[in-house]
Amino acid sequence: MGRWEPGARERLVMAAVDLFTEQGYDATTVTQIAERAGVTKSTFFRHFPDKRELLVAGQEELSRLLAEGIAEAPGDATPLETVAAGLVRASGLMGPQNREFAPRVRAAIAASTELQERDALKTVSLAAAMTSALAARGIPDPTAALASELGVLAFKRGFAEWTEGDRDANDELAGYVLTALEELRAASASLG
Amino acid sequence: MGRWEPGARERLVMAAVDLFTEQGYDATTVTQIAERAGVTKSTFFRHFPDKRELLVAGQEELSRLLAEGIAEAPGDATPLETVAAGLVRASGLMGPQNREFAPRVRAAIAASTELQERDALKTVSLAAAMTSALAARGIPDPTAALASELGVLAFKRGFAEWTEGDRDANDELAGYVLTALEELRAASASLG
């Protein structure tokens, strides 16, 4: 975001996660978040429409990267290889800060129905973004829908592994997500 | 619900769906819903905690039936056959009224982010209920998670087919859901 205030967005996210953890999501106001981050309320609203969006920021960026990776996969890639290309591209968005924050974000979501609903819609939106990108490559329905569900599941499982493990390590999210996707592919053979 | 007022719950749902369609979800109040249904506001609150819950009522019942059907599937059923048993049981909850209302419910959800979020959480909850029930039968992770996602996808796709087609017909939801599950099973062979 704007060069006039480097880091404000990240400081707002950190402040919000801390406040949600300390006093709960419902009890936390935009004023408190801005104050803790050392910025004005109007700076908050330059970055986020409300406090709920703050925790799921990045969803549009994730969807964009998923679609981009899928569009640019080799022409002869299988549906799952195509999904993998999207997942790798999107995984690049997640850095050490996301990894460090993840347990606190998870705790805040677990404690608030409102955040659970927002998070669920995020999941559904990511699947929809992948399905559209796969369909645009000519992958037929319902293969595209199924491949997307596997992709979302792999991303969530890989992210959970990545953020629950040893967070001092330098390994990247993409490897965890691809491992999860391969596990799901293998499991699909045992569905019957 | 209570014998003192037969049909109040159904009348409330019908009134709410009509009002959401006529004037939007946000503009509709509990008072208006109760009035249109010909009941008091306190009757509304005996049936639903708020107007949002009204549209997703039945989620707990669905989860319960899914879990029940899964638990009672034959011991030698494959994971997908087990999921199918849960889906058939849950499909029994949906009658002609659900079929008739579905397009209006869909329109109301499409027009409201709040309802989309609630609906997304419902989807995630159903998958979680199935995964738990499959795990309780000893189906290992991630097969249980994958089978549940296929089950939810089949339920949604089958429900969409059932409610978008010729709604005068007497055919039941279960057949549509099983067809969708079979299509997904077949598609899983082409994932690569």
Explain briefly what this protein structure is.
Two copies of one chain form a homodimer. In chain A, 72% of the residues lie in helices and 0% in strands. Chain A is mostly helical and 192 residues long.
Keywords:
homodimer; 192 residues; mainly alpha; Arc Repressor Mutant, subunit A; Tetracycline Repressor, domain 2; 0% strand; disordered N terminus
Strand content of chain A: under 5%
Q: What is the CA-CA span between the terminal residues of chain A?
A: 50 Å
Largest interface: A-B, 31 and 31 residues
For the record, the count of structural domains of chain A works out to: 2
**CATH class category of the largest domain in chain A:** Mainly Alpha
- Please summarize the sheet with the most strands of chain A: none
At CATH level 3, the topology of the largest domain in chain A is: Tetracycline Repressor, domain 2
Reading the helices and strands of chain A in chain order gives: HHHHHHHHHH
Instruction: Report the CATH superfamily of the largest domain in chain A.
Output: Tetracycline Repressor, domain 2
CATH architecture of the largest domain in chain A: Orthogonal Bundle
Mean pLDDT of chain A: 90
Structural class of chain A: mainly alpha
- Identify low-pLDDT runs of chain A: 1-5
Number of helical segments of chain A?
A: 10
What integer value in Å does the Rg of chain A equal? Answer: 18 Å
**Tell me, what's the shape of chain A?**
elongated
